[in-house]
């Protein structure tokens, strides 16, 4: 088990420098692995590494036993005594073969009236049901049984030498820690912290800081690296005890069932070389590669042959350090083969039209569709936006998460998940919704439509499709199992297209059955219903708009996705229909001030996004109480605003900082940052959205946009985030 001696990184400045130069040089700050002591009965359920016991207590608040005995040959094992006592557990005894309680823990032993034995564990009573007792043989040969249902064992720590040995580095033995540490590492690798045999927090910090500073200096960085963070140096002393000799099987390698007697048998049979020992007994083979068993096995062989452990030597360590599935190693692990990917239903149709694709999670999405003669992406995107604003266009939005919510309590369930009400939503209508995390921060947004009294169709953002589904299932199964509601992911079942622009109705009338009423009165804004298409296919049609134009989203079974794209082009040929990608979609949503991923960044509240009035006061919902915390309702919070440079030719860039006019940029004057940017064809300049302190009070104020990464500094105006058609007349017409 990897220990808790992993070094804490050094000062932020040094970490930053090291991260930037990692391609030139790597600093390995791995940990160490606690090793067992070999004794009869050590394979019983309930015999655990001491650090594992601490992990259960500290990390999971779980006590591994009602009466815990500790067997340790080093000071670090005593930390488990502290952990169990602080958690209210019972220590039945401590067995320390060194014969003397470490001075650091003498007071603890006396204060707690601990029974401390000098000797070793010679047997463990129990069976498959666990430990029932521990037999201790003291240094004078006397035997005594101790009542215990858990035995924590610490035989010391093995620094992780595997990473350096993979490059044929030879480990070096250190008597003070009774372990090997990395020796000559290959060029470009530095080992620091616990992996280098430094087991106290203070030593880890100093060692890691020195390694980081040296790496930065070797790569040409200048300046003072500062001082290492300070921490105490816990005492770590060890008296090696590898094997308690007694009757019974004592396991050395638990993965391959190699016992101490197997090692001594190998010596008697002449297999004394460590490589022969490994192959004769399978000690340290396969995925273990000696991480937990080699040192103990080497010690037993060294004793049998009358040599020291360094003289006995070590085997060759083979990568990978942790098991890796063969599938991860198949083929070239780069470019298109770097990770799995998913294709939208219209992907091959879009590829045939020359679409440029972008990775959105695992999805390949059409980013824009270049036309002959267009010199760059901006020209293509501008054309697509203008085509939608003045005519009609469509975009594949099949990557949105889609969830069918059914059952008599479906409305009640959604009321508790979203900040606004859905039980009151009429059948045949859609509503925008916002859900919060339990801490009051916005989790995701989307539209939900009511198909029938007991049937809702919910959509999520592309990025949060999986997490939202998991969240909804947790709510259904754990929080409110009494509700009659069923959930099913429908993301892959439907191909969905957004059709937008003044000529949207004309295009749809060529696709849907003539009996369908597509007028403004017959299909009003935020309407949702099933429609028949020409040819008899049933589709779902939602009148919702992300672009600010009159728009519909049409869903058809996924197998019809490519055909739908083709038919949209055929039906809209005389209308100048234009397919558009995610870049044009982003431009139009910024022009309309619609928030998306950069604003839903895990730090914003509903009010920060300008959606605070949606929070219902008539019902409870997840995050309602925590959203009212003082820090989340403070008047100086950063809220969503619009930002436009005073110089209309100036290009605005996301990530730039907002600083008061005339102020010196710095942490004290930083009032926010630009989250989303685009070139707006309708305003003929770069615009953006940003999160700015007290932003809604400051419309019309001139601020300074400071971008140190690109060495840019200019003035801009804070404005209403809705740049285009603020009244919303176009999407309702």
TrEMBL record:
Family annotation (Pfam families): GCV_T, GCV_T_C, SO_alpha_A3
Keyword Amino-acid biosynthesis: no
SUPFAM superfamilies xrefs: Aminomethyltransferase beta-barrel domain, FAD/NAD(P)-binding domain, Folate-binding domain
Domain Aminomethyltransferase C-terminal per the UniProt entry, residue ranges: 640-725
Domain SoxA A3: 247-331
MF GO annotations: sarcosine oxidase activity
Gene3D superfamilies noted in UniProt: BFD-like [2Fe-2S]-binding domain, Probable tRNA modification gtpase trme, domain 1
Domain spans labelled GCVT N-terminal: 347-619
Entry's EC annotation: 1.5.3.1
Keywords, in A-Z order: Oxidoreductase
Keyword Oxidoreductase belongs to the record: yes
Name of the top EC class for this enzyme: oxidoreductase
PANTHER family referenced in this protein's UniProt entry, alphabetically: AMINOMETHYLTRANSFERASE (PTHR43757), AMINOMETHYLTRANSFERASE, MITOCHONDRIAL (PTHR43757:SF2)
Family (UniProt): Belongs to the GcvT family.
Protein name in the entry: Sarcosine oxidase subunit alpha
Species annotation: Aminobacter ciceronei
